[in-house]
Design brief:
By secondary structure, the protein is mainly beta.
Length: 541
């Protein structure tokens, strides 16, 4: 089972007093070396430092501008005068290790590791230029490789020495759900230092370095000089999660610079990939600069956003890949519960996979004039329904509106029973996305007189699974209803067509509940058309 991923969108009112959302901070670490390898360069001209302050061809001023456009700050630091202490690291969310020469001490590496594990993010890359000019010090000099692998090796990743060669472009696998590469962007560079990955480790290739994922350029078989990993996999862009933090390694420096030889930040999708990397490392996974303050809490990724209220362009697009989504909202982060209200969102588009699952869904979150205190969260679920499967704990399973049914999950549903009012909606033979049990969703208990289910149970703790699919409507706001369990509101103003999203898309939700009166009461009330329920399962906790 894939865990639920929760992404909450709003700005930052966390306490009784107004509080400004903290700006994400990025540190960029660079070196200083002369063409002949003298370090520091001293009176000689430093060779390709790739400084943020440099607007020349081999500078990184455009990268700096891109980072600042996210609402972040970015500052540069010279490696030889920088010590990776806790006080230094804790001032930042992201560290970009540019071309540098310093071999960090074991104490610094341990401190960096603790910072990453607590939520920090780093990006690294290498090039022969870290050791000087390639035709002076040799293209295979290991200066950059040693500096980078001094940190990377403990995470099952290593960069090669400079391999030379021409420009190459690669893309990600089609089924990737990582927000950096979900839409198969093209990342281009000379690919001089591919990333070796330990196949047995946690690191993975978000963009593999192989011909199957190559868009342009010649084939390269990376050399393994200085690589200690046996039989490595190779990556253009590698990622290693480390507890609450993340490490990214890329295959070249060229995507970083303004307009240097070969590729640069404006070629292919380089700038967008780098933008996503920085936001990912900052744990800020939204797709606009207003999605701020991502934090990790018990495995859930949380970010808050507050609408400013109806004066500018209404709404912001949010894209979820290989996910189902629902949108919930509240007007007070301190005292209200999250509710679903489809009038606050607008479905823009969905693109299904071949098997009918939603691969790409776009929704727009709408502000409202005169109400600046709207908060929203987008709750994302794996495209495959997260249905509980411990059938031994099932107390009742009811096929609402239908007969007895044996599901692919192993759940045995009895014919519809214990309902209050309503009638049967039946549309046999329709394929349903997000499930292997299409017939279960082809029938439903509905109609205007449907008010709920009353199920006798012993007093105790339960999980109630409610299973839905829109069976009729093909537009938003045609069917809107709310649900209470044991008189507690669990779903408010659910629009299945908008939320699932679409017609004939399975949408399952489960809720914990405690019963103290011998009857599990599930109540429905519609504000548009009729409430609907396709099936329900009661699990004893």
């Amino acid at each position: 089972m894939n865990p639920k991923l929760l992404i909450l969108a709003s700005a930052a009112l966390f306490f009784s007093a107004l509080q400004t959302t903290a700006t994400k901070k990025v540190a960029y670490i660079h070196g200083d070396i002369a063409q002949d390898g003298t370090m520091p360069a001293g009176s000689a001209t430093p060779y390709d430092q790739m400084l943020l302050s440099d607007s020349g061809n081999t500078g990184c001023s455009q990268f700096k501008t891109m980072v600042e456009a996210q609402g972040y700050t970015i500052s540069q630091y010279y490696d030889q005068t920088t010590t990776l202490t806790a006080s230094f690291l804790n001032a930042f969310d992201v560290i970009i290790f540019g071309l540098h020469q310093k071999i960090w001490s074991p104490a610094e590496i341990n401190t960096l590791d603790s910072w990453i594990r607590s939520g920090g993010g780093i990006m690294m890359y290498s090039d022969s230029a870290a050791g000087g000019k390639y035709n002076v010090v040799g293209i295979n000099n290991p200066t950059g490789q040693n500096a980078v692998n001094n940190i990377l090796s403990q995470y099952g990743m290593e960069v090669t020495v400079d391999q030379g060669g021409g420009i190459r472009a690669y893309t990600s696998p089609a089924n990737s759900s990582n927000p950096i590469v979900w839409d198969q962007p093209i990342f281009e560079g000379e690919g001089v230092s591919p990333v070796a990955i330990d196949p047995a480790g946690a690191a993975k290739a978000l963009i593999p370095f192989n011909d199957a994922h190559k868009i342009s350029g010649s084939t390269m078989n990376p050399g393994t000089s200085g690589i200690t990993i046996s039989n490595p996999e190779w990556a253009v862009l590698a990622h290693c999660p480390v507890e609450n933090g993340n490490i990214i390694a890329i295959f070249d420096r060229q995507p970083m610079w303004n307009n240097g030889p070969g590729s640069d930040i404006n070629e292919e999708d380089n700038k967008e990939v780098l933008r996503r990397i920085v936001r990912y490392l900052a744990r800020d996974y939204g797709n606009s600069s207003e999605w701020l303050n991502l934090e990790s809490t018990g495995g859930l990724e949380l970010t808050y956003r507050q609408w400013s209220g109806g004066t500018g362009t209404p709404g912001h697009d949010y894209v979820a890949h290989n996910n189902r989504f629902t949108v919930q909202q509240r007007t007070n982060l301190l005292s209200e519960t999250w509710q679903s209200n489809s009038n606050w969102i607008e479905a823009i588009s969905t693109v299904p996979e071949a098997d009918g699952e939603t691969e790409l869904a776009t929704v727009r979150l709408l502000p409202i004039s005169g109400n600046p205190n709207r908060f929203a969260r987008v709750a994302l679920f794996a495209a495959t329904n997260n249905t509980p499967t411990n059938t031994a704990n099932i107390v009742r399973a009811i096929n609402c509106g239908g007969g007895a049914f044996s599901a692919a999950t192993g759940i045995i549903y009895e014919a519809d029973t214990l309902f209050s009012g309503g009638g049967i909606d039946s549309f046999p033979g329709n394929p349903v996305a997000n499930t292997e049990d299409d017939p279960l969703y082809n029938t439903a208990r509905s109609k205007s007189s449907f008010t709920g289910y009353n199920i006798p149970v012993t007093n105790g703790s339960y999980t109630v699974l409610l299973q839905f699919a829109e069976t009729y409507w093909t537009a938003s706001n045609q069917r809107v209803f709310s649900v209470w369990i044991e008189e507690n509101p669990v779903i408010q103003n659910l629009d299945l067509f908008t939320t699932a999203p679409g017609k004939w898309v399975a949408y399952d939700l489960d809720f914990p509940v405690t019963v103290s009166d011998g009857t599990l009461n599930i109540a429905f009330s519609a504000s548009a058309n009729n409430a609907l329920l396709n099936a329900l399962v009661v699990f004893q906790n």
